[in-house]
């Protein structure tokens, strides 16, 4: 088989991180980035793709690409419908079956990997009991279970041969030998999304039904809205028509090791990546909420020590449960305290990463003008020289944070290109805050801190979209 055509979805603003990750982990070539989607080809075989999928951290979802047509010129409902149907009909039966086989192969291997990982987390005795259970209960009827048992068996043999624990890659080589079977009748469901200009002409539901009828006749597949074998995603927008089959049942960003959802996991991972965590580092998230950043960082940089704190007991309960579920108890320590009173000695931390409150859910925006200078003062105290600090904040508070951290001189020497960094609006806002007669908005303490000169350097500032919120990841080094 030649190169495989895939695409992924990514949060707005994360596309560059995703591109690098795809090059590194999936050997991606001929990459094309559109808004929120990245199309690429890979020469890896299906087994290698399947095993690498679990290691993708910046991606939301991954699809095998059935069709990507970006030369549609939809100018009317009638013309548009005809073009879409023609493009759909032009996909050959072989192309559909190739994509379906890739999908089946990947999801089966994913299933093997998940089962094996679950088995591995048990005690030695338990683990093999589970493998046996698989064979007793399921093997007769479920081909996936046979595969799972075979992979677990392989793993057991490799372990008893006192080799290193096999990586997912080598497990999958075992699965690869098994030919992907195609079941008698393939059932499908179409999920259709129409946006941009085409949204004026078509309703997603109607288009989904029309394309579903075409697919049924063309492939003799059967529609099943409840429990289909395969889900076909169709997206029509200003950029054209995209048809894909997701390679994982759940989005990759919905990590199975979280019980409570906090910050989006790809954003947490990207923040940790920007923090340049080294083996032995002490990493602090002083407002850890559900612990997403700490857990994402600990999973990928396991040789560091992580400390989290929050002043909200409910949030700490969530982070405790998440840490337990993710089995990261040994690496992450939690404290119930206000970040401003953290019992940490000066220069004891290598990295600070934090998703700062924006004043939407936790407090009000005006309170952040008092809080941010104090937080920055604390980070400056506990960070070692050369330490990294990566902070997420809202568009509104970004410039205030930058002003708090860096004097103009430092900003000018940081090589940062953003001309509106300390724009008129921000300077005016800061002047206004400094002139406030009352201490309501900016208490004297915070006002004094604003006048301190910290020798921090801005490393980079990245725009990211969090739902409807425009936010920025600001990365600094204490020099
Ligand atoms: C934006 S949330 C962090 C969400 C977190 N990243 C997650 O994934 O769940 C901000 C957190 O800061 C905490 N917080 C606000 N002010 C604080 C303070 N002065 N000290 C400690 N925690 C604080 C809030 O309780 C909240 O959990």
UniProtKB/TrEMBL annotation:
A single GO cellular-component term on record: tRNA methyltransferase complex
Ranges where the Ribosomal RNA large subunit methyltransferase K/L-like methyltransferase domain occurs: 255-396
Gene3D superfamilies membership: 3.30.2130.30, Vaccinia Virus protein VP39
GO molecular function, a single term: tRNA (guanine) methyltransferase activity
Biological process annotations from GO: tRNA methylation
InterPro entries from the UniProt entry: RlmKL-like_Mtase, SAM-dependent_MTases_sf
Source species, domain of life: Eukaryota
Cross-referenced PANTHER family: THUMP DOMAIN-CONTAINING (PTHR14911), THUMP DOMAIN-CONTAINING PROTEIN 2 (PTHR14911:SF1)
Protein name stated in the entry: Ribosomal RNA large subunit methyltransferase K/L-like methyltransferase domain-containing protein
Species name: Paralvinella palmiformis
């Amino acid at each position: 088989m030649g190169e495989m055509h895939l695409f992924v979805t990514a949060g707005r603003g994360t596309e560059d991180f995703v591109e690098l990750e795809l090059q590194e982990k999936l050997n991606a070539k001929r990459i094309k980035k559109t808004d929120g989607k990245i199309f690429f080809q890979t020469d890896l075989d299906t087994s290698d793709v399947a095993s690498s999928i679990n290691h993708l951290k910046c991606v939301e979802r991954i699809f095998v690409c059935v069709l990507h047509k970006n030369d549609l010129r939809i100018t009317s409902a009638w013309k548009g419908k005809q073009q879409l149907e023609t493009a759909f009909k032009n996909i050959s039966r072989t192309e559909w079956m190739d994509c379906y086989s890739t999908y089946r192969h990947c999801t089966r291997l994913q299933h093997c990997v998940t089962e094996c990982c679950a088995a591995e987390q048990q005690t030695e005795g338990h683990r093999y009991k589970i493998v046996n259970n698989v064979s007793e209960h399921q093997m007769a009827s479920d081909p996936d279970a046979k595969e799972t048992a075979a992979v677990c068996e392989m793993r057991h043999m490799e372990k008893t041969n006192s080799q290193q624990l096999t990586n997912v890659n080598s497990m999958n080589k075992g699965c690869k030998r098994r030919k992907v079977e195609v079941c008698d009748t393939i059932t499908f469901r179409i999920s259709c999304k129409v946006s941009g200009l085409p949204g004026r002409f078509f309703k997603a539901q109607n288009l989904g039904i029309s394309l579903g009828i075409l697919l049924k006749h063309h492939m003799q597949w059967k529609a099943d809205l409840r429990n289909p074998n395969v889900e076909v995603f169709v997206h029509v927008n200003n950029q054209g028509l995209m048809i894909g089959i997701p390679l994982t049942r759940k989005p990759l960003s919905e990590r199975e090791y979280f019980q409570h959802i906090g910050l989006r996991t790809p954003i947490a991972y990207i923040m940790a990546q920007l923090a340049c965590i080294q083996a032995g580092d002490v990493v602090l998230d002083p407002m850890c909420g559900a612990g997403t950043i700490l857990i994402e960082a600990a999973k990928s940089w396991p040789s560091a020590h992580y400390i989290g704190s929050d002043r909200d007991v409910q949030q700490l309960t969530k982070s405790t449960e998440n840490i337990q579920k993710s089995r990261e108890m040994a690496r992450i320590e939690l404290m119930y305290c206000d970040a401003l009173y953290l019992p940490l000695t000066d220069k004891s931390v290598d990295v600070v990463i934090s998703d700062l409150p924006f004043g939407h859910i936790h407090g009000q925006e005006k309170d952040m003008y008092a809080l941010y200078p104090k937080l920055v003062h604390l980070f400056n105290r506990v960070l070692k020289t050369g330490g990294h600090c990566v902070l997420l904040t809202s568009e509104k508070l970004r410039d205030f944070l930058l002003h708090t951290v860096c004097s103009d001189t430092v900003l000018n020497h940081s090589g940062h290109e953003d001309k509106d960094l300390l724009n008129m609006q921000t300077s005016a806002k800061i002047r206004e805050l400094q002139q406030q007669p009352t201490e309501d908005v900016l208490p004297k303490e915070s006002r004094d801190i604003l006048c301190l000169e910290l020798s921090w350097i801005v490393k980079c500032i990245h725009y990211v979209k969090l739902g409807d919120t425009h936010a920025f990841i600001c990365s600094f080094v204490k020099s």
